[in-house]
Specification:
- The protein is mostly beta strands.
- About 10% of the residues lie in helices and about 25% in strands.
- It contains four helices and 17 strands.
- It has an eight-stranded antiparallel sheet, with no helix packed on it. A seven-stranded antiparallel sheet has the order 8-7-2-3-4-10-9, covered by helices on one side.
- Strand 5 and strand 6 form a beta hairpin.
- It is globular.
- The N and C termini lie close together (about 5 Å).
């Protein structure tokens, strides 16, 4: 049976098999990550994008100095004025400089519908190691917004450092939600699996289908346990297995360094627990219906 995307914190989500041609953006200015669908494409379209937690997922339009959009990626709110994304969405390692002149952040985008409006990023950051080497081991970044006017509507998810035994739980239910370039432009898609395929010291491996445009998507847990809704990784790479950066102490320290430098704020959960930050108008996270079919 086809796995359904675990819509763990919404009242209702409309799933559509809609496909269609669109302009396929590069995943980022410096390096494309090839679209990787493993076997049959099982991604589900999310159309109730204004509902938490999908409201925290943002479409990132990368613009050149003339304001022309040349690429897109995915970002996730991790604080009132900060989003997590991939380093290669921000830094062009081919030219050794920032790839975009402007980044338009559009949370909950669904085609032409932009339920919360949008903002231009005020600043963005990648680790020095990524700027120097372009290696996937350092492929993460942070985007700072000028204020919290968007997150007051969308909420955000918290970041945590999960131990290996938790990540290897056969019922961890990793989720990736983002904006793939092989689907209709600006539409949100996601997929859940029961567990990671493998967990390494710095990398999470999974058979969750992805495509160019989904780089920067957070990897978070849909488990009913203590990691519910907590971000444990960042999707960055495609291959025989798709994979992303595991959030460890060093990566988390880099994220905090980024916000110290840019004067933004990240929500970090040190001790695992059901700690999420929906917008004030929504019910508590766990009060949403979670009746979902699973394989």
């Amino acid at each position: 049976m086809k796995r359904l995307l675990l819509l763990l914190a919404v009242l209702a989500v409309v799933v559509s098999p809609e496909g269609g041609a669109r302009r396929v953006f590069a995943d980022g200015p410096g390096r494309q990550v090839a679209p990787v669908v493993i076997g049959v494409d099982e991604r589900e379209r999310i159309t109730d994008t204004a509902s938490f937690p999908f409201s925290v997922v943002a479409y990132l339009e990368l613009e050149d100095a003339d304001g022309t959009v040349f690429a897109s990626c995915t970002g996730t709110f991790i604080g009132p004025d900060a989003l997590l994304t991939a380093g290669h969405c921000l830094w062009d390692d081919e030219i050794g400089n920032w790839g975009a002149e402007y980044i338009r952040v559009i949370p909950g985008k669904d085609g032409d519908f932009e339920p919360f409006g949008w903002q231009y990023a005020e600043d963005w950051w990648v680790p020095d190691q990524y700027a120097l080497t372009g290696l996937s081991e350092w492929d993460w970044g942070v985007i700072k917004l000028p204020d919290d006017s968007l997150s007051n509507q969308t909420g955000w998810l918290s970041v945590t450092v999960a131990p290996t035994e938790a990540l290897e739980d056969p019922a961890f239910y990793p989720v990736i939600v983002g904006y793939p370039g092989d689907k209709p432009e600006g539409t949100m898609w996601g997929l859940i699996r029961e567990a990671f395929v493998a967990v390494d010291e710095f990398t999470l491996y999974y058979d969750i289908d992805t495509a160019a445009g989904q780089s920067g998507s957070a990897v978070w847990s849909a488990s009913d346990g203590p990691y519910l809704g907590l971000i444990v990784g960042i999707h960055t790479q495609g291959g025989e297995l798709n994979n992303g950066s595991r959030i460890d102490d060093e990566l988390l320290a880099d994220l905090l360094t980024a916000c110290e430098a840019m004067a933004c704020s990240i929500d970090v959960v040190d001790a695992p627990g059901t700690v999420v930050t929906p917008p004030p108008s929504y019910l508590p996270y766990r009060s949403y219906g979670v009746a979902v079919a699973r394989d």
